[in-house]
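Slide 14.
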Amino acid sequence: MTLQEDPIMSSSTIADPITLEIIQSSLQSAADEMFLAMRRTAMSSIIYEVLDMGTGVLDASGELASSGAGIPAFVGVLDKAGKVIIETLAADDPPQPGDVYFTSDPYRGGVTHLNDIVVVMPVFSDGRVVAWTANIAHNSDVGGMAPGSASGDATEIFQEGLRIPPIKAIAAGEPVRAVFDLLELNSRMPDTLRGDLWAQIAAVRTGARRLEGVCDKYGADVFEAACAQYQDYGEQLSRAALADLPKGTFALTEEIDDGRVLDVKITISDDEFLVDLRDNPDQTEFPTNITRDAAMIPVQMLFKSVTDPGLIANGGTFRPITLLTRPGSVFDPKEPAPMGFYYDLLLPLYDLMWRCLAQEMPERLGAGHFASVCATLLSGTHPDTGQQYSIIEPQLGGWGATSGRDGNSAMFSGVHGETYNCPAEVNEAKNGLFVNRMELNTEPGGEGRHAGGRGIVMEYEIRSADGNATLAFTRSKFAPWAADGALDGSPNYCEIIRAGDGERERHSFVAGIDTQPGDVIRIVTGNGGGVGDPSERDPELVRQDVRDGLLSAERAFEVYGVDAAS
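Slide 15: predicted structure.
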């Protein structure tokens, strides 16, 4: 094959195919090393255990050059934040070697909510910026009206914490002390915030050093050409995959737990993947709005799912996407709409788009999953150390079955990707509570030829005398949807079991509720939807479910018609 015949090369090629691949692999390696640097040096368990973070490499203009590592929804933030930082600061105060920038404001590049701080650093070669290293992580407390900086009572973003516009926090290698003082002064956990921010800074510096080494070896011109060529390659692969999708306009409306009705229209043509979200409710004072940039992220994720999840992901990959939103709506709000629980709208949007296309391409997309972060925010004073703690735990749940297999059990939601639950030992030591139980959810739901995956039951016993809990669950009213004659999954919900009398309070969303020592927070996450008529399930699989304790003998006979005792 000649250079011109290679699909990733063009007549203007500077890098040969082998060099191009080496440079692209170096970008991914740099992002992976940044990820490890953050994991090993962060203060918060949500970063170093749960891995609620993301890393990536941007090209000189802020486009995603390498998808990096971490939560897909977080990796999708980085290019959007990088572009805002470049546009906001570069003209008046051009970046210098050693500079590092922060942002967290959803209206100014932060994209998600105020806890998620983006850190970006320019990479120089031959006297110019050739790339940017970037990361994002959930920080435990950035001020606001509630511990953990997430309040269900917030009606405007000012109540949710300190907003960080695009700002230079490190100037030519030296910390801008006023920036750090301001951030720490507004946090209930300043030591933890400081430690997590320096972990993020160490990570972008690590990535920058690696990329400078690549540029020293191959030259700035070849490096930049390789970034551009690989994004063009990403576009070519996406357009080739787009050609294999069914064409037309597909629409779906669905009510979500709070009574709002969401609407999506997806038009697929030979050269475009268009998502229209204009016909949706107005923005709300409740903190479940998402910016247009945030709405773009689940669109990009769905696009990857229906084209080829194994393909590379960079700025070029997503060029066929067009997103239409209406300013002033929940998917394109105007200031000062609150954003604290943005994920409680992001996930329903992702799930709605998934369901819309699953009807057209069931071989690519399975049934509905539990579709919630099931955010569990617990705070108080550690009974042993006397220090303030504030944790936010995303929970595991059940995924929907596919046309060929059962759904996965105890996995994180669709926007979370490669994250992990926090070990009980870490939670108990750092946060002064007991983890009494973590087991699979055996409630009915999700039965089918292929069964939905199981959610979990998680129990935290409070030890703090001044405990506070905020619990935010979606898909509590409407269970994960099934396909092809199967049964829907089961809902997400939580219970507070009071010490002493054992009174149970069931909730789907509760904000700022006081807890006392001995109270138990019981989390139940949903089973995914099934696929196919339950009567078609292999009887031996039904009996195995009974033996494993996932299904009662009575339910096996009722739904599957199988006598588990036979």
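Speaker note: The radius of gyration is 24 Å.
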